[in-house]
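User: Hey, quick favor. My workstation is busy. Could you predict this chain's structure for me?
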Amino acid sequence: MNKKINIALVGNPNSGKSSLFNALTGLNQKVGNFPGVTVDKKTGESKISEKHSAVFIDLPGTYSLYPKRADEWVAYRVLLNQDSEIFPDLIVLVADASNLRRNLLFCSQILDLKIPVVVALTMIDLAKQKGTQIDIPGLERELGVPVVVINPRKNKGIENLKRAIESSIESPVKASSRDFIYNDMLAPKAVREAREQIPSMTNYAAIHYLINYETLSLSYTEKDKLRQIVERNKFNATRTQAEEIVQRYARIKNIMQQTVSESDPLRKSILTQKLDNLLLHKRWGYLILLIVLFFLFQSVFWIAQYPMSGIEWLFGKISGWFTEIMPQGKLSDLFINGFLAGLSGIMVFIPQIMILFGLITLLEDTGYMARISFLTDRIMRKVGLNGKSVMPMISGYACAVPAIMSARNIENRKERLLTIMVTPLMSCSARLPVYTILIALVIPSKLYFGFLSLQGLVMMGLYLLGTVMALIVSLVMKSFIKNKEKSYFILELPVYRSPRWKNVFITMLEKAKIFVFDAGKIIMIISLILWTLSTFGPSSKADKIESFYKNEIEKKPDQKDVLTQQMKTELLEHSYAGYMGKAIEPIIAPLGYDWKIGIALITSFAAREVFVGTMATLYSVGEDADENNATLREKMNAAKKEDGSKVYTLATGLSLMVFYVLAMQCMSTIAVVRRETRSWKWPIIQILYMTGLAYLLSFLIYQIFK
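Assistant: No problem, here it is.
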């Protein structure tokens, strides 16, 4: 009988834990969230032996059992048996052999919790490169638990690790009665009294219960008794923690002297140090960073356009095929223009999501991502963000959807939330069609100094406007978003390594799956709502329009396509979306917009690029209007208001461009923000502040230039 066991993977950040998780579980993974926090809960299954299979839980990386961030609290609760869903039978502690002293601190704390442990020692090759030799049997003897050397990047030592796990399950090593250090002597009376209240816990667990009893899952009576013990014994948490760390490092020093031989500290600098001299240079470092970020953004934009175009072409063919075989009617229209259009809107983002996260994973694997955060932290911190915010914000130039998802790397809740709230202000690729047609419409094609294009300068100005506003909004919002969690930017600069292509591939698939199955549901619902608003209106009016054009088509069959397009335009005008456009006309008139622009503002809520298609329908250009922008520009340029004045003046065009820079008009982004924040509160605030900001600045621009 194959018995399934639960194994938690723990370790310091950058110790190789995620690589081991991927090596053990491959594609057999599930990603969810830990209860109450937006922290990835990664689980995966793997066969250990003929007798046992295991569910591996990849816990967030942490340096010690004294949590400061939300993700560290997740690991802490599991290890102290405080998680209601996860009860590990065994711990696999991943330790970096090249930084063994620091990794042994966390290891020693877990040993004192008396949980069965197997130590997986990674990066032994790097340790040897640094001149470090480790006596593995001696280390096993000192720690009292199995120690296995592995290289998950090359899939080496995995079978040895599985055998060690199997051995620990079959013949569990009895936990030593002696602690790694004398925990009961740190606060002897308080520890003894705490264990009398909860006899099942160890001396070391008792210290943590005394420190964090208010936040742990205990009954009111247990919390009150622990509080009395703390007060009665004048238990000082800070002093106890400091004494513990000093004693642990003293014991670790002794273990290192017996089991580890290190080369002369004045050894020759390795490649990492040489590269850092260049990549973290106060001038060249920033120049290289700009080049890397430019390449990242352009790669997402350039590479993704081919599969995105392919997906759009495929869905166009599928829609055309269904249009031919399905009878005309509301049901077929719902399926083709509602369901298929919504599905297309979901699938078309997948290439950008996969490419962006693939490239980000490459940067993380090589070790350069930590350098990006280090270089940009000082600038970002001034506006309430931190160095890790720069990647989501830069990625937002391609698409806000994967950019917001990548903000998960930011540990501090406030800084992560600020990043999510301002990232949609970065001008994504979906805004480009809007910018292009409006600039061509109202900005003259002039050259300054023979090479500087006025239209190009305006385009650059729109991108700069979004970036500057993002920083200003973050500066303002940081005063309103309250968070007790202190902001730490303790960053380890890992060594440079070659990327793990298997890890890149798994991450790309995982992120695409999260988007499709989580955000995709909301996108589909909103697509169907927009189809309903654009398709239906007062039935009597729609019947009259359809009857009129049916007669006209019978009279003039040679003009069927033109008349059909005119009918669609008139039906859209008299749909609920059309009436909404006319209803908001008095509100948007101060911005220089008419009711047709109002309809475009409503329909482009699905996606900003829909603006061009909506204009093509309203001005009866034809089905392929987006491929014939010259015709659309001519129609828009000739458009007149009821008083005979031009609709698209310089003032109106600039106002509309500014509106699209700042307004939240992307249901995919809203869906992702809802998923990442686990609340409708923040996407609603985002819609309100971005729409208000867009309206105000568009109004000012229109009044200045009209």
